[in-house]
Amino acid sequence: MLSLKSGTLRSRRHGPESAPLAIGVPGLSANALTFDAVGASLAAAGLGFAALDLRGRGRSPAGAHGTHGWENHARDVIAAATDLAGSASTPFDLVGHSMGAFVGLVAANFAPQRVRRLVLIDAVGIPDPRAMPPIIAAVSRLGAVHESADTFFAKISAAGVVPWSPFWEAHYREDLVDVPGGVQQRASPAAVLEDLHYGTWQLGIRNLWPGIKAKALLIRAALPIGYGFIVTTRDRDAFLESVPGSRCVEVPANHYGVMNHPETTRAVVEFLK
């Protein structure tokens, strides 16, 4: 656990701690286990990786109302990198998925001298509105009590959005706690909703692109979620044009399946190595 001024963050380590630092930032309501496939591949390549639970997710307690939002999470990520590296000047790599990618864009603007390489997994600009219903449905489940873990897993699997597998069962099992009447997700509904509302108003996200000084890799899910894409082709092309030296890898998976797809892990390892 990392003790920061803003609160406590859980860090899930992969690979040697002596290796150059790379940090993983999960999505809106996700926990650090969404990076287990990426972390295992990086560890196998001899690289170090630390996936975080953002405040209000996984095993990291939520902060007070008004203390979340991309900018505050970005400050947390930079502070976590300082804690993990033991220095406020050590460069680090940053891998963000979904909202975590937006946090990464902000962090790279806040600390251009520290963020060395930036991986944005399926988020970079303004999503197609038709892609949002499955994301909102996931948020709406927070706080609900389910009869058992198996009942909850059956609901997630039946929705047909998350490509159900042992990988995703491990992620969601980590996210469950026993409560009277059954089980409930760990993620704080208040913290997640605060971030969802924050993101709704970030129409100027593209203004962050020119501030990216790090080498950047965009990994785009080539299959839609719902009826749209989180990264539109317009934003993909505009980002590549705006950020010198950036490149994009298209992965045949949707917004969730991209996290444990072998083409994603291969691309991240090649880029960070």
Name of the CATH architecture: 3-Layer(aba) Sandwich
Distance between the termini: 27 Å
Give the mean pLDDT.
Answer: 96
Biggest beta sheet summary: 8 strands, mixed
The count of DSSP E runs of length 2 or more, i.e. the number of strands, is: 10
Please work out how many helical segments DSSP would assign: 9
Which structural class do you get from the secondary structure elements? alpha/beta
The CATH homology group name = Alpha/Beta hydrolase fold, catalytic domain
Query: Can you identify the CATH class?
Result: Alpha Beta
Can you tell me about this structure?
The chain is built from 9 helices and 10 strands. It has helices at 36-44, 70-85, 99-110, 132-140, 149-159, 166-174, 189-200, 233-242, 262-272, and strands at residues 2-3, 8-14, 22-25, 49-53, 92-97, 115-121, 176-179, 182-185, 215-221, 247-251. The strands form 2 sheets. The chain has an 8-stranded mixed sheet, sandwiched between helices. Strands 7-8 form a two-stranded antiparallel sheet. Helix 3 links the parallel strand 5 (92-97) and strand 6 (115-121). Helix 1 packs across helix 9 and helix 2 (70-85) crosses helix 3. The two termini are 27 Å apart.
